[in-house]
Structure prediction request, 415 residues.
Amino acid sequence: MAQPSLLEKLEILADAAKYDASCASSGTAKRSSSAGGKGIGSTEGMGICHAYAPDGRCISLLKVLLTNHCVFDCHYCINRKSSNVRRARFTPQEVADLTLSFYRRNYIEGLFLSSGIVKSPDHTMEQLIEVARILREEHDFRGYIHLKTIPEADAELVHQAGLYADRVSINVELPTVAGLTRLAPDKNAGRIEGAMGGLKTAISEGADATKRFKHAPKFAPAGQSTQMIVGADAATDADIVGKASQLYGRFKLRRVYYSAFSPIPDASAVLPLKRPPLIREHRLYQSDWLMRFYGYAPGEVADAAGADGMLPLDIDPKLAWALRFRERFPVDVNRAPREMLLRVPGLGVRAVDRILASRRHRTLRLEDVGRLTVSVAKMRPFIVTADWRPVTLTDRADLRAMLAPKATQLELFAA
Prediction:
């Protein structure tokens, strides 16, 4: 059988990488620019990561697999060993050459590299590291590199990856041990979390060393992240939110990404026939934001879910929580503490900070709040100002219907 060309490999392996969502490049350390003829690339600038897709779209990071051959047989993965898909494999030099070629053409700002498991976890990890080594040492590449590491690989290899990469990540895959055991029999939850714990320790030690010693090597300066698949098993939104909170607390992750399960060809009978609605993934990201920036505890986010543990799809989790705990409202914007203002639907972190700054100088009216926010429509039932009090509005039985976004029919050819 004829070997695929480099372009055919790129088409296969860039498309195969699209299922991995965990590739944002925020938080990386800024290296000196390559201006002046020294080095190649830079981490400066806007670096939002997507894949270089087969349809030719130019994107920020080259997001690709080293290979989609895999010795594992995870039911939800299109690249599992029992899957009937076209296979391809890059050499480390080919990936390095592609990265440099695309960077010089101004297509990308860096590389997101993952892989199926070929031969063994250690062998695959060595190949991933070799790509980063070629870029960093042979070409002085100063752009962003994100390596997806393999928890089953030797800990020393994972550590080497962190010395070359800006960010490293290990996917927990599924939010429950039962789900992982059922759908990914070759993976072990304890081994995955053990590897994440090792990365956390190495990242902390690396950060401490760079503070104490001027020339200490940096270790994964953009931290580590992970990804959970949503909708492949019976885990509820409450389960997922709880797991995410544990991961943030135990491993100091930069991000937990959520990826809605997508049905694959020749799927296993244990998988659902339909993908979950994409809005479910969006609600989980909103919940994640509430925990990270708005001071919500995981249990409070779970309180926004229904009795079945699922977040409502028609309204955001913050509004769902406010409607469930109406006794906490209305909130006086001229007197309430910051943590309570952050609970008001429609008020973001920046708007709350503006309110706190403004009320030091004057008593705020509803019109003033409107100038400091995008819209006061959603927050009117939940706030008190010098000239506004919602009276019975907060307790109206149809308040949810009033505040829920109206369903609209989209037009295919709308201007």
Q: What stands out?
A: Residues 42-59 have pLDDT under 50 and may be disordered. The two ends are 48 Å apart (CA to CA). The longest helix spans residues 189-212.
